[in-house]
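Sequence only, no structure available. Ideas?
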Amino acid sequence: MKTFTIVSLLIVFAIYLFITEFYLKRRLKIKNKWKGLFFIERNSYSFAIDIVLIFLFIFSTMSLIERSNFQTYSLIVATPMFGLFFLLGLNRGLEEWLFHRDKKVYYYEWLGSFMNLITFFIILIGEQ
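Reply:
I predicted one. Tokens follow.
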């Protein structure tokens, strides 16, 4: 990894920690309620969308590995891993926004999803 990539990722991580710890948690007093994939109180439609996204990720990764030799980009950029994390965060944030809007936990999910997108572009730019 190049120095630009490492420094940029550290800056993104520091900004994420600052926003979550000092702004969301302490100033706005929003507690993060992490819901895993198999959390009991999840909406069934959102759960089904998560399962579909995971199967699409597995299928697209298998098809990319089968017909590509990854000479242009490394495996971390060429696979749709960042897209999976981005879409899962958006889906969970949308679920929280639709069903538990008063708790404002969706800020954590959308911030994490946005940081995944920024991380992808930093790694993509750093490899060129």
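Residues 3-127 form one domain.
Hope that gets you unstuck.
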